[in-house]
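Researcher: Predict the fold of Branched-chain amino acid ABC transporter permease.
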Amino acid sequence: MNFEFLGDNFMSLTVTGLTQGAIYALVALGYTLVYGVLRLINFAHSEVFMIGTFVTTIVWAGLGFGVGASAPGTFGVLGLIALAIVAAGAASGGTALIVERVAYRPLRKRNAPSLIFLISAIGASVALFELVGAITDRQPRGMPSLVQPKVQFTIFGADITNLQIGIILSALAMLAGLDIFINRTRLGRGVRAVAQNPDVAALMGVNKDRVIMLIFVLGGMMAGAASVLYDIKVGLTTYSVGFLIGIKAFTAAVLGGIGNLRGALLGGLLLGVVENYGAGVFGNEWMDVVAFVMLVVVLLFRPTGLLGESLGRARA
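Model: Structure tokens for Branched-chain amino acid ABC transporter permease follow.
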């Protein structure tokens, strides 16, 4: 154990953890939205994220920015990122919608038990996993280096780069937008109504099927946006990229209080920070162990997660 390293690099590890945690939080929103309305876990969500990473590479390569390509100017980079977010969000949102129509809706019409939904979601996940693996020959795909990390300022000895700032602020902005949509708009009120009591919501004229479609699409769009940030940060994707990210994002959702949008943010950021502290103390090979041990410890003392508020009880 190297607590001296943690003390010497505390702020640097914190910022790195917040950057990674912001990506976890965006992906976690998909899990928390679906659970908040359906009380079910969409285990195909990790592959929804994975689809977004590949669409990003396709869009950039189609515009002539493949691996090794020189980055354009600032406005060109911002345009490429914005275009990738739109394309990946649409592709991931569309994939999530297909999952809902194929793996969930037929079972809901038949009032299937929860276990059957779980099996169906896992089947959809494996199908997408193997499909993309076959299409890509199970080979990784590289990204152009559109954003070169440059130190913008220093806090307590930690260099803060433009890439870290961009990822954290982008994730916070998207989460804030989703939070406002759910809490302040007519469609958002419909989502909260169905989450709280679907039968009463139906009597009040809320279309449950449309609400469920909406939350799958919204969750997919957030995962698509997260996939772009991941591609920019890591610079590489593969057909199996969604597996660990999906597990970490699900952990973040449970940690913050699954079914709670702000809990997903808190859980994601906290998970990213703690796993980086663990890597600093025990070594990188212990990063994932520390993250999941923390989840177990928190749930032992607070089974509903840190915030524990369901989507149906979200503040109006």
